[in-house]
Amino acid sequence: MKKNLICAVLLLAATLGAHAAQKPMNAPKGGKAISDELIGIFFEDISSSADGGLYAELLQNGSFEYSPAERDGWGPGTAWKQVRPGHSLGTMQVRMDNPLNANNPTYIRLHTERAKEYYDYRGWKGYGLQNDGFDGISVKAGEKYNFSAFMRNIGKAKQVRVALIEQQQGRGWMPRDPKLLAEATFDVSSTSWQKYEAVLTPDTTTEKAALQVLVLTVGDLDVDQFSLMPQDTYKGHGLRKDLAQALADLQPKFMRFPGGCVVHGGGDGFWDTYRWKTTIGPKEQRRGLKNTWGYHQSMGLGYYEYFQFCEDVGMQPLPILPCGVSCQGTNGGWGMRGQAQDVVPMSEMDEWVAEAIDLIEWANGDPATNKWAKMRADAGHPKPFGLKYLGLGNEERISPEFCERFKYIYERVTKAHPEIVIVGTAGPGSHPGNSDLENGWKLADELGMPIIDEHYYEPNSYFLSKRQYDSYPRDRKTKVYLGEYAAKDKKLIDALAEGLYLLHVERNGDVVAMTSYAPLFARKNATNWNPDLIYFDNERPFLTCSYYVQQLFGQSAGQYFYGDCVRFDGDEAGVIQPQVDVHYGQSVILNVKTRKLFVKLVNAGDQAKKANIDLSRFGLKKTATKTVLTGAPDAENNFEQQPVAPQSETVKAKKKFTLDLAPYSMVMLEYQL
After folding, report:
1. Rounded CA separation 55/578 (Å)
2. Phi (first) and psi of residue 651, to 5 degrees
3. Which of 6, 363, 433, 455 is the most exposed place for a label (fewest CB within 10 A)?
């Protein structure tokens, strides 16, 4: 008993000690209060980022909703092919009458004429379909995969075999039978749509698996909404584990979604735009959509999954909704001033106001009193998601039509929910002197908008030299969200240029509240835009140089900036020289919540720099972590090679010291206080 009491006391002391180590501290003098949400992520379904990417579904076009209008040669049978092992016979027919759901009306009727084996020794029979996923299906031996499909019988009962197979290379005129990895058999007798499920556990690891669905009984059978999902997903919520973890490792403070230009224009313009209400609920009830980038979105990754992922990672959700005006790329492309915008008549704007208010209530409302909140609870999340931010608009030209509609929705949403922080837009190409930027800021000042979203993609020379936030007014109510930016290449020098620019952002963290690199993901052989932060194939992600810079900044969030702790040889301590081409810089950030201090230094030039560092005002523990990112300026990580990655080591913590900063390098020192 005495021994147990001693153990309990020791455990309590250890626990209290751990809590004491994390007790918030007061910031020493000399610090400037800044945003601690500077680094976030921006997810848009571009370059097959969702289906075939972050969304873990392994089958492509499982609901047969691909349309010839989406891409040349596409149709309901895309990603599927007819199979008839053993020389079985049959036909397939695309139908839309009496569908499983009106949002996904297309299904396939399989008519099996002969299901027996023509060659008895071959061992395979049945007529049906095969899906090869996204450039093949990757499976691992011993892992479990959840198969499901909806089937409806016509006539006598049918036996259906589902086989996970690996294609085999044959010789001569007769192809070899596929290698069976796992299988399940269903007896289908219901004349109404019914869901059938099985767990498939392959005995072999392969990147070239496929799924076959074979009807073993003569007659007709309707099939729809096929799915093959790994059980092992990120926190069990249906996202591909390695890609989701790569995002979590950035330690982002928020996620903006679902776009981007995806927000306010499907592939056919504003009138076919993304609607969040059709992306929640059971997967078979969600409405797929041709997106801005010309391909189909299944909406398996919908608003519920976005919010759940934000909760899983500890990010603030930042959903973006349209506000009655088309993307600046509509009707003539990318901000052509001579082209008209698609606009919603003012008489119809209440629908878009409701779109925003209903989303807030879906995310934050009480299921007992609100129908939208009840839908959230019925989906498995009774507690509110805690929505704080809501974006209205994305890169629209700041035209009179836009201003009229934005004011209309902004005023009504803020009146209904004053607790929500509205993020507006500064229009396309938000550079100083750009008329959209000027008009966007004029509108922001008029409305007292909390945050405005600026976007720009430029060569690395821009990020090496521009320091415009040094001169932004400090008396404005509106803060900046730099929602999309990137240097126009993915070499180390581009990443270091972005790092220098982020040092400037941190220095101006009293004006700039949030940033997010864009685009986030790109699938191999399906890339719409370059560069991107993370490239991937079916097996793994490939992390760019820019990814590692973002990661270092994400890891070093804090509430105070100190500009006088580092002096480079030849410079005066704390002196800022805006709008000059200086290829080196520094930032010292204090996180009073975690009691951590971060010193970041970037040298994007070809000469070494000597930094004199004085941390005397901070109480440092004995050791620090030093992380270095360096290499040749034109080095880049890609599918073939990944020469650039950060290297970390434990070093002795010193209050005053000199650090040699190598050419083309970034260094971060992390201290516990």
Report:
1. 43
2. -130, 165
3. 433
Return the closest-CA partner of residue 483 out of 49, 36, 44. 44
Among all residues, which ones are annotated catalytic? 395
SS3 625: strand
Q: b/e map of 329-350 (b: 16 or more CB within 10 Å)?
A: bbbeeebeeeeebbbbeeeebe
Q: How remote is the C-alpha of 580 from its chain's centroid?
A: 34
Of 227, 223, 228, the C-alpha closest to 112 is: 223
Between CA 424 and CA 480 the distance in angstroms is 10
In the chain the first and final C-alpha atoms are separated, in Å, by 38
Check residue 71 and give its pLDDT: 84
DSSP string covering 567-590: EETTS-TT---TTS---EEEEEEE
Report the distance separating Cα 324 and Cα 392, nearest Å.
10
State whether residue 17 is helix, strand or coil. helix
Tell me the backbone φ, ψ of residue 247, rounded to 5 degrees: -70, -45
Calculate what percentage of the chain has a pLDDT beyond 70.
90
* Residue 10: per-residue pLDDT: 44
| pLDDT < 50 regions, the chain | 1-20, 120-121, 172-173, 331-338, 574, 576, 578-580
Q: Can you read off the two tokens belonging to residue 390?
A: 């809501």
Element (H, E) at 5: helix 2-21
Q: What strand order describes the sheet that includes 656-661?
A: 566-568, 609-614, 656-661
The span from the CA of 551 to the CA of 25, in Å, is 25
- Write out 441-494 in H/E/C secondary structure: HHHHHHHCCCEEEEEEEECHHHHHHCCHHHHCCCCCCCEEEEEEEEECCCCHHH
Considering only CA atoms, which of 499, 312, 251, 546 is closest in space to residue 535? 546
Task: Output the pLDDT for position 332.
Answer: 40
d(CA 409, CA 75): 38
| pLDDT for the residue numbered 16 | 41
Strands 137-139 and 609-614: unpaired
Rounded (5°) CA angle 600-605-611: 40
Q: How far apart are CA 99 and CA 385, in angstroms?
A: 33
CA distance 444 to 441: 5
Q: What is the DSSP letter of 278?
A: G
